[in-house]
Design a protein that fits this description.
The protein has ten helices and 19 strands. With 425 residues, it is α+β, with helices and mostly antiparallel strands. Strand 1 and strand 2 form a beta hairpin.
């Protein structure tokens, strides 16, 4: 009997110990879970900002850009969260005022630092649809002759075609006929270098370049190297720039000259140009510079990230040479003549590419201009698009000149002096 009572007592103590241990373990788990949740709770939970592994994005949000602190646009969210942006207030405001002054039907302007991917300006305006937003992020606009950049890149890198090579042709170079893009030594009495053809946007020469040296897979490949048909990471969704080359007669040649089924967004146009400015390297774009907590703790900071090595550095150098011709003796030589320039860019070398074509979404006549400056070591790349119809207000090169002037007038330029060949008159 005594032994049984002893055993029962011993078992009770054992069960009590086990129960106590289990309760302690459960309490420890609960406290640990609470503590972990307290330490790992998303500090941006009550904001439209979503922090990802190496980036940040907006959810159903676009900054109003109506608050400026210490020269930067900022947004204050709940819990004391503060976001500052990479945008240069002077460039942004000057271009916005320029659009509004001329009441353009549709206009968009993007400025970017080619070495970092930081967006310096992202402005849009529509007199026709005053509440329309994100014009610069939509890709329903015809790329027009901006696509000659892709054609030139493919010819230079794949077939080692030099910017200085002379190409014989015939006919008016702003028109395209199948007979014009085929070599005919007896009739091709005109001659133009590839760089000059790029600067003057000679459609016949670029159709001949495609017919002589390229094919559809190669041209698609180089378009996709520059992110056509691919998503571009950004804080707000950027519509994918679509390109499609038909296999019927002239599909290759017309696309190469800028008349294909190719759409592009102004932000993508700026990125495409920035890759050329940055020795062929395309950087990921970012607009959110830094996010901090109420206590001033940095929760996120934009750090430069390579998106893609689009082309080789020597290919980029040849393209820069061609872009210099656009401003020196090509389609914008009159707009950028030194005597017509603002003082801030009078001695700055500039390279660029124009485009012009009618489009349907929205309907109107599109003008484009992408540019980089200074051409020897670009600090800034801009892309401007203006849709006019039926009355012409201003053109894209004028908008780009306004944005470049604001940048170099603001003192943001890191160039103490400008050296090398002067690419403008």
């Amino acid at each position: 009997m005594k032994k049984n009572r002893y055993r029962k007592k011993k078992n009770l103590k054992k069960h009590a110990g086990t129960l106590f241990f289990s309760l302690c373990a459960a309490l420890f788990v609960l406290l640990g879970t609470w503590a972990w949740g307290a330490f790992t709770e998303d500090p941006l939970a009550n904001t439209p900002l979503i922090l990802e592994e190496t980036s940040i994005r907006f959810q159903n949000f676009y900054p109003k850009l109506d608050q400026v602190e210490n020269g930067k646009y900022v947004t204050h969210f709940e819990n004391g969260i503060r976001a500052s942006y990479t945008l240069d207030t002077r460039i942004q405001q000057r271009v916005e005022n320029y659009f509004e002054h001329y009441k353009v039907p549709y206009g968009a302007f993007v400025a970017i630092s080619p070495k970092t991917g930081k967006i310096l300006a992202l402005a849009d305006y529509s007199a026709r649809e005053p509440h329309k937003k994100n014009i610069a992020l939509q890709a329903s606009y015809p790329a027009a002759s901006l696509f000659k950049v892709i054609t030139a890149a493919a010819a230079v890198e794949e077939k080692r075609v030099s910017a200085d090579i002379d190409i014989s042709y015939r006919g008016e170079f702003n028109r395209l006929k199948p007979a014009y893009w085929k070599d005919n030594p007896e009739k091709d009495k005109l001659k133009m270098s590839l760089a000059e053809a790029f600067g003057k946007s000679n459609n016949v020469v670029f159709a001949k370049v495609a017919n002589r040296w390229l094919d559809i897979p190669t041209l698609i490949d180089y378009g996709e190297r520059f992110q056509f048909n691919h998503r571009i990471p950004f804080e707000s969704p950027i519509e994918i720039s679509r390109m499609d080359i038909t296999e019927d007669t002239g599909g290759l040649e017309k696309t190469a000259a800028g008349f294909g089924k190719v759409g592009i967004s102004p932000l993508h146009a700026a990125l495409m140009t920035s890759a050329i400015a940055n020795e062929g390297v395309m950087m990921s774009p970012c607009m959110v510079d830094m996010v901090t907590s109420l206590a001033g703790e940095a929760l996120y900071a934009c750090t430069p990230k390579v998106l893609k090595q689009a082309i080789a550095p020597d290919t980029a150098a040849e393209l820069k040479k061609m872009m210099g011709e656009t401003v020196q003796s090509g389609t914008v030589k009159n707009i950028f003549r030194q005597r017509y320039r603002e003082k801030s860019i009078r001695k700055i070398s500039i390279g660029g590419k124009t485009g012009s074509l009618r489009g349907k979404t929205p309907k109107g006549r599109y003008t484009w201009f992408v540019a980089m400056a200074p051409l020897e070591n670009p600090e800034i790349v801009v892309a401007a698009m203006v849709v006019n119809d039926p009355v012409w207000h201003i053109t894209a090169p004028q908008v780009a000149k306004e944005g470049l002037s604001a940048y170099f007038d603001s003192g943001e330029s890191t160039s103490a002096s400008v050296s090398g060949r002067e690419f403008t008159r």
